[in-house]
Amino acid sequence: MRLFDNLNINFLGKRKIAYIVSSLFIILSIISFIIRGFEYGIDFKGGLEIAFDFEKPIKISELRELSKKWEVGKIELKTFGGETGVLLRTDELSLSQKSASLLKEKILSYIKDIPFEPIDTTFSTLIISFSNVSDTRLATEILTSKGFQVTNYFEDETEKTISVRIGIAEWIKEQLMEQVPDNKFTVLKEEMVGPKIGEELKRDAFFAILFSLIVILVYLGFRFKFIFAIGAVVALFHDVIITLGLFSLFYGVFPGLNLEINLTVIAAFLTLVGYSINDTVVVFDRIREYLKIHKTLAPEIVMNNAINRTMNRTILTSLTTLITVIILLIFGGEVLRTFAFTLFFGILIGTYSSIFIASALALDYAKKNKKSLMF
Amino acid sequence: MKQYRFRIVISILLILFFVYLLYPTFRDYLYTKQFSEELKKYELELKEANPEISASELKLKLKLKEDSLKTDENYKRNRTKRLKLGLDLQGGMYVVMEVNVLKLLEKLANKPDAFLREALEHTAKITSENDVDAVNVLVKYFQDKGVRLSKYYGSIRETDEEIASRLKKQTEDAVTRAMEIIRNRVDKYGVSEPSIQKQGSRRIVVELPGIAKEEEAKQLLQGSALLEFKIVKDADVSIPIMNRIDEILANRDPQDTTKLYENASEEEIKKRHPFFSVARIASLQDPRGLTYVREDQRDILLNYLKRPEVQNVIPNNLEFLLSAKPEFYQDGYGFYGLYLVNKEPELTGGVIVDAQANIDPQTSSPIVTMQMNSEGAREWARITGSNIEKRCAIVLDGVVYSAPTIKAKIPTGNSQITGMKDLDEAKLLQIVLKAGALPAPVDIIEERTVGPSLGQDSISKGATSLILGFLLVALFISIYYQKAGIISASTLIITVLFIIAILAGFQGTLTMPGIAGIILTIGMAVDANILIFERIREELKTGKSVKTAIESGYLNSYSAIFDSNITTFFTGIILYQFGSGPIQGFALTLMIGIIASLFSALVITRVILSLSVEKTNKISIG
Which residues of A touch B205 (CB under 8 A)? Predict the structure, then answer.
């Protein structure tokens, strides 16, 4: 079986059209970066994220209605996995005064049978003192069983004082237990990322992608010629920007498709950079080979030949990789969906750019600067 | 055939090696299955025997049973060599903590005033943006404002450099101490295979696999450490108690007066004296009754001590404690000290003002000196006075770091501890002793918890995707390249085996993105084959014989394969550097996958392909 036998298309002759199409997409992407920006995940934005799994299916709209009573800043709710899963996110890391005092009352009511003395409350902890150690232990047990985080207060060595965390997670869990008492839930995962970490990660991610592009530029410059390396890396930029453009344009548009930028997505982008360069390298390798054999032919013709001859391989490899990516998209679950999405479109765009853009850029760059393509 | 013999042998040996690397994983799987069945059976038995059993008692009994099952030697050996699953697959907790160095700097200052607070605020701002050394930032602020450090720290005679380097040392110690405390607690909590690592200058990354109760874990990590001094009981008290425990564990009648060590086989001793077969008394003549536990039997001992019937015979005012680290090594095993101590501490660590590890110039052996405040010194004089020639255990969070013998009454609180193996051990003790004096609080700045059900779900999704991905890609290339395609599809299995075996063999961790990496590798692995096959087809078209076509097909594809794979490998390395946990798992599988697929395509497929055309001189490549 053969896909493209004796293919002979003048790809480079159509490079103006390719430039226009690509420029349009890039401009559109950049406009969207400026106007819409991105939806960052908790990894970069910081905040609190809790995934619940309820016993029975639960409607997000219903929960959204209930969440208005929680009085916790901005709460985002999404489905997580199936219809019993809910992903909750908020940017705030501490409770409002009012909710905090309500939660405090709640905590104190749980231990009302034990004599205690409230010592102090700060914005995130409640400090309670007891008259003896066994009372402390009893109270600790009760509160821990209710899902609270209880610690022995550290400056007290007699074990008579405890501190109870009154954070957003506790508050929300408490509210949910009350509002939907007939639908019990378990917490699938809970993530808290401080704002500091988010900023650092954003910077690291940016440099990781930039650094990998530079490494590829240097390596290809060394293995081929600098002209080719430039063509390949600009094509890579093209792939990354347009794929990022999709993230910017379509986040929040399709329900069920979560297009937020998180660590896994960055991993997908780096993989894309590493993978997408493959097609380009294979084409360049063939150009190098043909340029050595046909020294007198015009570079356009040599390049066209190389692209046509490697077309089978380019399409086939992209196809097999796309097969696996599609499977991840369908069966990989919530965790890998965005990862697979990035690679799916990234590979499509990358295949396109290695056929239409990379060689064309090398050619035009050489023409403009009057440099020879010959090895 | 002959020319390929070497390659065939190498390939077969490698495949056998992979199977060998994966064998412990397989055994571990069987063990885990067996244990969970046994536990279920035991739970039913318990419920049958006592239908009224309370949930907490049931849980405790099950936990004890599970622990005793898990002390099996074979199980442990396989367990350490199995393929480890990341937190995202088996559930667990990932916490990044930051030692609050600023609090420490504030505490260290002689008389904090508005200027110092301003300086610390400035430092807080800078250090929150970058992971730079807080002391450097503070010192620079002082210099910019023309204020000498000695105004707040150290004494007037010291130069800024001296003070700065001491402050640096103290903040570093605080981080080391926090790590030590956390490691200590996590060990005691019994988390299997925890990972505690330092990141940057003041961050600690803790991974606790399989933790279900996050509140408990957080409490474990954040509460401040408790340093206590406890008097150790000598042989006259400890041996009778241990004897009683031994009797209970062996179900022996107290009237049975069989001697401890008579000429019996090791198995028999183990059966008759379960406790003494793990808690080894160094010498019955030594009045101190030094007792040790071999490191691999530590869990068994802890399990014994937790049993309610054993708890009953230990007097209420006493408790058994273990040393923090092995106290000596013999026959390749570390030995932990076992101490019977007073439950009520004589003194707690808050009274310690300073501690210093040094080399004694006279004896040139390491010593630790410690100073106490006046209140502590008074108590200390009384304690040391009435316990001469007894040992005093230095206990941090319930683990013994050292148990020096009290030689004389110490009236001033200035004490010297000797007998450390080396300066490192002395330094550790110094850090421990300061735990009470300088508690630097740790803040949790990142925390991720994955419940076990989500992990299970991810595993099954990953497995489905892996199998489906493999089948579809194999089908596709088998149709497209016919026989040659079938060959390369079957080497795909070897590629996957390669990745998983190397991960297991080199203590890598399989994460969900890692599984995605393997699936992706399946798609990309055929790339090398496609390149070669397409090239062979082209060569055949130019009229070359099958053998030469294969030969030059391979030869002409090398540079493209090499260049394209090495760039992917580079991004894999960068990704590994950048990411943490799950992402690193992905980068790792991606990199191993590249090597594996190249090996499959360039060596194995080639040998099979060449062999298959050897006789017929025909190739079936679609």
Answer: none
Of the candidate CATH numbers 1.10.8.60, 3.40.710.10, 3.40.50.300, 1.20.1640.10, the domain formed by A12-41+195-368 belongs to 1.20.1640.10
Predicted confidence (pLDDT) per residue in A49-106, tens digit: 888 888 888 888 888 888 888 777 778 888 887 778 888 888 777 677 777 778 888 8
For A86, A118, B454, B459, the CA distances from A82, given in Å and listed in that order, are: 9, 43, 12, 16
B223 touches chain A (CB under 8 A): yes
pLDDT digits (tens, 9 = 90+) for A269-293: 988 988 888 889 999 999 999 998 8
Q: Do A271 and B519 touch (CB under 8 A)?
A: no
The answer to whether the beta carbons of residues A363 and A300 sit under 8 Å apart is yes
Tokens of A117: 């003395």
* Contacts B587 to A, Cβ<8 Å: 267
Which residues have CB under 8 Å from B161's CB, separation 6+? none
Residue spans in chain A of domains classed CATH 1.20.1640.10: 12-41+195-368
Model confidence at A154, pLDDT cuts 50, 70, 90, reads very low
Q: Is the ipTM of this complex over 0.90?
A: no
Q: Are B197 and B135 in contact (CB under 8 A)?
A: no
Residue with tokens 């003896």: A132
Which residues are registered as beta bridge partners of B64? none
pTM exceeding the 0.80 threshold for the entire prediction: no
Kindly list the residues from chain B whose CB atom is less than 8 angstroms away from the CB atom of residue A289.
556
Mean pLDDT, range B116-134, rounded to an integer: 80
Residue of B nearest to A169 (CA): B215
CA distance B214 to B222: 12
Helix (H) or strand (E) holding A263, with range, is helix A263-293
Fold of B452-614: Multidrug efflux transporter AcrB transmembrane fold (1.20.1640)
- Please tell me if residue B523 touches chain A, with a CB cutoff of 8 Å: yes
The domain made up of B94-224+442-447 has a fold known as Alpha-Beta Plaits (3.30.70)
Q: Which of residues 106-135 of A touch B (CB under 8 A)?
A: none
